[in-house]
Specification:
This protein has helices at residues 12-16, 149-165, 191-199, 280-286, 301-315, 329-332, 382-408, and strands at 19-22, 27-30, 38-43, 49-54, 62-70, 73-82, 94-99, 107-114, 123-130, 139-144, 147-148, 168-174, 180-181, 184-190, 205-209, 214-219, 224-231, 238-244, 251-256, 277-278, 290-295, 319-325, 341-345, 351-364, 368-376. With 409 residues, it is an alpha+beta fold.
């Protein structure tokens, strides 16, 4: 079987030529990049690397590799293997993907779907997700009162999530907010939904699990990422910018987790009228785009107001996005992550500045390593709409439970 069992000792880095740089303070070793080289580390159940799949072995079982990085960290991946190697990778196995001879992974995830031996197809697919995907399968029952948002997140990660997922809590990747929750009640909610709700009270924060399996919670980086200051025709060939108002909402009401005198859960004013959250400038520009948003975990007016103000800020304008592809190998080697702002200079002199939100890699024998980047906020995909429908039903159930509880009292 063509699998490496000890990469650094197998001679690859020695043959590539290690550069040993010595200073008066420290000795550092720099490995040169290797065009179109990659390897995948496979972990056993004890958390140790047991095998490697590599591009530099003869008759490699790997046909292709795809993986995605999003603002929540490592997203989904797919490995395509020759069918005779179907039993090589097992379910729930941890994998890491390394490119260009780098010593730190660009991706870390776990297997949640695989083809089995005996298939009549020529290849089998192994699919999985980054470790943030495990948050979907953790149930949280917790009430937070008079606690800063990041402190609540720290409690969730350290006491409810890390031990069940294997991720690491790293205090250096946790940044405090300027808001103290006055009342949040989570009843049988998934950890991912709880974090999504808590992020609604932070001022434009991103969170997730990175390639080192560290959880992060921090403000969105709005400075220019110099690795993504790019010119069409020089650094990449295809640029597709667009504007979309599918998700625009500039006038809405809020239902929350505190029953009102009229038996509803709408946030009301002193005259028992539902409070409207709106943006006059957006309404004047685009007209009325109305909705009702639900936040059943909020149980105080202070939290409702904060959440609604952040929601309005994120929905009152159209979204701008772009797809980039056809990158030169030099740009792919830069290890671009979904962080910071990209500056795109077009051939006609137009310049765009967008948030970097997604980086997709594909590796195959025919094309080598290729990359696509998504900038800005793309309209939600169908799977996210389905998830929103499920969450809407969960919210409705939560309100029903709240109503039943009040009736019992």
């Amino acid at each position: 079987m063509n699998i490496l069992s000890g990469r650094s000792l197998a001679g690859k880095y020695i043959l590539a030529g290690i550069t040993n740089t010595t200073t008066s303070e420290e000795t550092s070793i720099t490995y040169p990049t290797i065009d179109n080289a990659f390897y995948i580390a496979l972990y056993n159940s004890s958390g140790q690397i047991s095998q490697y799949l590599s591009s530099d072995i003869f008759d490699s079982p790997l046909v292709s590799v795809e993986f995605k990085l999003e603002e929540t960290g490592c997203s989904d991946f797919t490995l395509t293997l020759s069918r005779e190697y179907a039993s090589l990778i097992f379910i729930n196995q941890r994998i890491e993907i390394y490119l260009f001879g780098e010593t730190s992974p660009r991706y870390c995830g776990y297997v949640n779907q695989r083809g089995l031996s005996g298939t009549t197809t020529d290849t089998v697919e192994i699919a999985g997700y980054g470790y943030y995907g495990k948050f979907e399968k953790i149930i949280i029952n917790k009430t937070y009162e008079d606690i800063e948002v990041t402190s609540a997140v720290k409690d969730l990660i350290r006491n409810y999530i890390a031990g069940k997922t294997g991720i690491s809590y790293n205090s250096r990747k946790m940044v405090s907010t300027d808001f103290t929750l006055t009342g949040q009640q989570f009843a049988y909610a998934t950890a991912s939904d709880v974090l999504e709700d808590l992020a609604g009270y932070a001022d434009d924060y991103v969170y997730g699990v990175d390639e080192l399996m560290d959880f992060f919670w921090k403000p969105r980086d709005t400075t220019v990422n110099e690795d993504t200051r790019l010119w069409v025709g020089t650094h990449f060939t295809t640029f597709e910018p667009e504007e979309d108002m599918s998700d625009l909402v500039n006038y809405f009401y809020v239902k929350y987790g505190e029953e009102q005198d009229d038996g509803s859960y709408y946030y009301l004013d002193d005259d028992s009228n539902p409070v409207v959250f709106s943006d006059s400038e957006s309404i004047e520009t685009y007209g009325y785009y109305e909705d009702v948003f639900t936040m059943p975990t909020a149980i105080t007016e202070t939290d409702v107001i904060r959440w609604a103000q952040n929601k309005l800020e994120n929905t009152k304008n159209p979204t701008f996005s772009a797809k980039l592809s056809g990158f030169t190998l030099d740009v792919i080697k830069r290890n671009i992550k979904p962080e910071g702002m990209a500056v795109i200079n077009c051939e006609d002199g137009t310049q765009y500045e967008y948030q970097v939100t997604e980086v997709d890699y594909k590796i195959s024998g025919d094309d080598g390593i290729t990359m696509e980047i998504t900038l800005g906020n793309k309209p939600d995909r169908l799977d996210k709409y389905i998830r929103q429908l499920i969450k809407a039903q969960d919210d409705a159930d939560a309100f029903a439970d709240l109503s039943d509880s009040s009736d019992d009292e």
